[in-house]
Amino acid sequence: MKRLGILAAIFTILMLAGCKEKAGDLKDSRINLDGKWVQVANCAEGGPNPVAWLEIESNNIRSCVQQPGGTYNTFKGTIRPSDTYGNYKIDWSNGYQQNASYPVGVLKLLSLIDPSIQSTQCYTQNPSYPPNSQCQF
């Protein structure tokens, strides 16, 4: 009986040590998405297409998109990690929900996925293409 108790105690200690190690690894491996992002023409080549921008600060995300008439729409939202490393959920202020992934491809793009139609838009951090001055972040 004592041996069983000792084995249970050792097993518990090993499990707790493993959990602490995993939590530390997760903290060290967090991706920092903070900054300004510009949309790219397509997710494979990554050439800038400066008609849409994202700005991410902590868990806040703002989007600015140029409309066909030349006006700009802005939205605010919250970005949070999903249950899988490198995957995120975005809850926009207008009720729309999106998925995101980073890094995507060799260019390490941030992709926003529309789950209803499975379309993807990719963004890169490129200071040469800052958000348009008409974007009201």
UniProtKB/TrEMBL annotation:
PROSITE patterns reported for this sequence: PROKAR_LIPOPROTEIN
Protein origin, superkingdom: Bacteria
Protein name: Lipocalin-like domain-containing protein
